[in-house]
Amino acid sequence: MAGLIELPAAGQPSAGTARNRGISYHGDLGRMLRDLTGFATLMFELLQNADDAGATTMRIDVGRDALVVVNDAVFSDCGNQDLLPEDCLYLGEFGHRCDFHSFREVASGDKRDRADTTGAFGIGFTAVYQVADTAALISNGRHWDIDDMQPEASRIIQNGPGSVGHDLHPPVGA
Fold this sequence. Notes:
Largest sheet: 6 strands, antiparallel
Distance between the termini: 57 Å
Mean pLDDT: 76
Radius of gyration: 19 Å
CATH topology: Heat Shock Protein 90
Shape: globular
CATH architecture: 2-Layer Sandwich
Strand order of the largest sheet: 1-2-6-3-4-5
Low-confidence stretches: none
């Protein structure tokens, strides 16, 4: 019979050897995609993201080689994307991350406590992977190429300046 095990209070270190406990990023991404199936779901997630960003217009072009989503909203940007998401400058000023830092933290649920947004779980963007393997996010002067199959440190590659508006370009069937 096992003896009584005394555990430290939550958040307090315990004696012994620490072991990491993480999450399988690709496994979790696959689970999210299984929950986000169908073209209707994809369109709903894209519309919801545009609405959360404050868009008043949106255009979706479904082409042979790409799905292009354009709206008139702009991602908020704290101005320092060299910082980790948990160090975003908006946290102190606004109580939440800027849109670019929030985007970098998949499933962060950053919009959950913001009254002006619908999204709550931080997974809507993953719906694009139903039709594409990679994507490009262009907003507020930034152009990010996104490939979630890459190692975490290189899933987003920032290229030259982007447009003033907000575009999403996942290549279809890539």
